[in-house]
Design brief:
Elements: H1 7-10, H2 19-26, H3 49-73, H4 77-82
Keywords: Methyltransferase, Transferase
GO molecular function: methyltransferase activity
Organism: Escherichia coli
Length: 84
């Protein structure tokens, strides 16, 4: 497991993970994350799925309204109406 490797490579994102290490350290999970983005969202602090879905739906409805207005501004009212 990273033998004969310089110290930087041994801890870099391209290092090797032995089968034994995955079994012991990760309980056979291949979910190996070693890069933590300072701006990443902690999944433990996310709202409930129904809240996230409602927010997404609201954003999509708003985007569709903006697209509808754009099509009408471009003179494509018939096409916009056909999409309803």
């Amino acid at each position: 497991e990273n033998k004969n490797t310089d110290q930087h490579l041994a801890t870099s994102r391209w290092r090797k993970f032995s089968r034994e290490w995955i079994r012991t350290a990760k309980s056979d999970s291949l979910d190996i994350s070693w890069l933590k983005d300072k701006d990443s969202i902690d999944a433990d602090n996310l709202p409930e799925p129904d809240v996230l879905a409602a927010e997404a739906m609201g954003e999509l409805v708003q985007a569709l309204g903006e697209l509808d207005a754009l099509m009408r501004e471009l003179g494509a009212s018939d096409e916009a109406d056909a999409q309803r």
